[in-house]
Structure formats: structure tokens, C-alpha cells
Amino acid sequence: MPRPTRHVFVCSQQRPPGHPRGSCAANGASPLLQAFWGELQKRQAYEQVAITYAGCLGPCDGGPNVLVYPEAVLYQGVTPADVGEIFDSHLEKGEPVQRLLASAAAW
């Protein structure tokens, strides 16, 4: 199996309600992960893209967060409706989706 060109990590960190760092799981990480896996299957992009759920990627209070390697691009506040655009722009063309980029302060 060839090595994928890009690897997508979807934060699925689950913390209790009211936790000061927030919880990506409480903000919709599960439907987001399902949307990424569904888009991967729809496009049959298994050799180009790997998708993995992850623990905390940092700014969970603004999540769900998505980290794309090898560019180390962090997206924040991603919804299932954004997944097609991330595939079209970043995962296929290498152009990050500017409107979803996490601020430098979030890192």
C-alpha cells in the first residue's frame, strides 16, 4: 500500500462539561470524523489521504480541530459542511482553506 500524501487528524478529545479547555467531542467531532471518512470513501482517495481520530490537538475550546500533515496546518471550528472544501482545496490541490485556519495564538 502506498504512503498517503496527506494525513488528517480530527480531534476527538472528550472532556466534562464546563472544562476550561473545552471539548471537541462536545462540539461535534464525531459527525465531523464521519464526514471525513465518508468523503474519503466517496472519492476513493485511500492512497492519497489517511484520516485518523486524535486526542487533544490544543485549542479544543474553538473546536472541532483538524490537523493536516505534512504541512502542519491546523483548522479550527470545522463542521461536516466544510469537509468537501477541505478535500477539494487542501487535500487534492495543496491549498489550505484560509477561512478555517486557526490563529497563531491558538497554537
Summed up:
With 107 residues, the protein is an alpha+beta fold. The protein contains 2 helices and 4 strands.
Q: Kindly, what is the distance between the CA atoms of the first and last residues, rounded to a whole number of angstroms?
A: 33 Å
Overall pLDDT score: 89
Strand order in the sheet with the most strands: 2-1-3-4
SSE pattern, N- to C-terminal: EHEEEH
SSE arrangement:
Blueprint: E1 6-11, H1 29-43, E2 49-54, E3 65-69, E4 73-76, H2 83-93
Parallel strand pairs: 1-2
Antiparallel strand pairs: 1-3, 3-4
Description:
The protein has helices at 29-43, 83-93; strands spanning 6-11, 49-54, 65-69, 73-76. The chain is of the alpha+beta class. The longest helix is centred in the middle third of the chain and has 15 residues, at 29-43. The relative contact order is 0.23. The mean pLDDT is 89.
Output the keywords.
4-stranded mixed β-sheet, globular, 2 helices, alpha+beta, 107 residues
